[in-house]
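Backbones bend. We report:
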Amino acid sequence: MHIQQLSIFLEDRSGRLTELTRILAEHDINITALNLAETTDYGIVRMVVGRPALAKEVLEKAGFSIRLTDVACVNIPDEPGSLYRVLKILTEENINVDYMYAFSNRDVALAVIRTADISGVAGILEKRGVKLLSQRDIYQL
């Protein structure tokens, strides 16, 4: 079970992130998770949205460079050791995490994880009892 994430390259100039979020808002596309990483010349926004195909379409029309990527989103208790237990499973299976971002809200923590083989990772985690969010859990249908 996996979901799609948008990876968007942003020029390092004021207002570009605002423009990106304006376009999504105008098309009624909800942002579920967002991570912004910067380099000296540009930023990379990784986000999970309610309508990834539509978001890609409207943002490309506006001149943004975008890639859709498969990721896993784990749903774990918001308590010490939860993330460790998930990462320990991946380590035991010799799976390298390319990147991840996470947040928690009340009793639930969510972590978006990117690896080389998302389908394989999803199967391993589900088999070991880790709850993964599905497209139905996140996408605006």
